[in-house]
Amino acid sequence: MPSEGDLVHGGWLGAVGCDGVQRPVGVLNALCEAHTVRRLELPVHTMLPVVLRQLLLPAMIDTLGAPRTRKEWSARFHRGQFSAEERDRLAHYLGPRYGDRFRLFDEEHPFAQVPGLESMNGETKTAAQLVPSVASGNNVPVFSALSEADELLLTPGDAALWLLHVHCWDTASIKTGAVGDPQARNGKTTGNPTGPLGQLGVVVPTGRTLYETLLLNTPILPDGLEPGDRPQWAWQERPAGLGCKSPAGVAWSERPATGLLDLLTFQARRIRLITCDTPKGLRVHRVIVSAGDRLAHTPEAEPHTAWQHTAKPKKGQPHRRPRRHTSGRAAWQGLGTLLAMTLPLEGDGPYTSLLLRQIGDLGASGVLSGRYPLGAETSGLEYGTQSAVVENAIGDELPLPVTALLAQGDSLREVLLECVAQADQVARALDGLNNDLRRAAGGDPLPRDKGSRPSAQFLHSLDSTMRRLLAGLRTVEEDDEELLERAQLAWEQSVQFAADREAGLLIAAAPPRAVVGRTVKNGDKEFVYRSGKAIGVFRTRLADILTRVADERRVQREEAAAA
Fold first, then answer.
1. In this structure, what are the phi and psi dihedrals at residue 157, rounded to the nearest 5 degrees?
2. Is 256 left (phi over 0), alpha (psi -120 to 50) or beta?
3. For 521-544, how does the pLDDT look when each residue is reduced to its tens digit (9 = 90+)?
């Protein structure tokens, strides 16, 4: 029976099998049985990239190596599972070779921690410091069920998840000064950045099984891994001269990642979990979180983020910077970024992630079918007050047609981008109608950053329709123009219906005086606002945006007149 905190053999990860049954697994079974796992059951959206990057991907890549060619990647992917020989190598890697490094409470090598870490003031914090949804210090979520005074007891499995989450997503708040840290001042460390993922708009491609998801998140490296590139649990094997401090020591440095494995397992904090015995077993109740390594810059080899390309950056700034997700917007509203397969020819613009570009290349070369049921999970955190607190968590998932990622997939890509643009334009038209009705009734338009807007409810109502459209287009051939046209017409009809419903609510809520309206002077000009005029302007905008529906209605009127 595995000991408490044994991450290799203990059942601490929830895995939903292809049969729909959830079962607990450790790292070894999660990898060796990945072909039988549909997905991991994790507490929050931001946890999937954490588990992939800090555990499963680096263990797999360090054991088996990164594929160097499309052919090698294809052979692994279409095999559908690890071979018996590969499973033996994984078992050896996570057993005799590094198994002792995956023990959460090991005295000499506690996983992703610093043994014997002590704060300069001798204090420890509650385990709530690991969980951003629980009040701790300056981070006080509005709907937190616990206060900082309440004791939070974490099981070893939950503690492991949130420990790794801190390394990836921690806030930039002041950190506890650690004994022996030469850069700590007055018992604390300031100027900390957020965790590495906190600076990205994370995009994780997903497949039908965990095995396929692992391969979809594995970059093809023609030259293999960088010399000296090691995951955090094998830091002793890094050659001298790379400027890396031991993640098992209190000292830290600002440095670039030495390669893919170092980037995935970057130790952005120095942490020690403190346990207590309870009737239900060992629990983590206190913690020390101190400053850790600072990533000098996000390398272009970062696989899990989309980018913002700047043609003429400021002096000392890179041409390409990570593009973060926007709070309050569904993932499909960002398809313009996810499907930006080439750098902008002129000016600034988005550029999709390395992994989605790779998937597009694999589709173009015939390795992946255009009908493959690809998914994409997006995640991010929105920080506030100098990035010292978490204000909002961003997480979404959507089906993604592989054909839209192909270099020659312009037609399908243009269809999807047009659909997204139409939704945005109609949303703005609804907000315009709302503002005009408010003016006609004697009020003022809503300030840009305040109030509940009809566009929000409208876009939310289109969410399921867009996901059905994306799922359906995964099976459409690129040259099937008739089917694409029918899909666009069906989309426009759905948008028209949703817009009519929201507009009807706005019109019904307008007071009678909006019919008479009012005249507003702005300088030498006069503007007349009436509900009837506002409705007419809105209908004209809708007809200009939803041209297929407008044409269909015109034909119907002409046929009715002729009859």
1. -65, -45
2. beta
3. 888 888 888 999 999 999 999 999
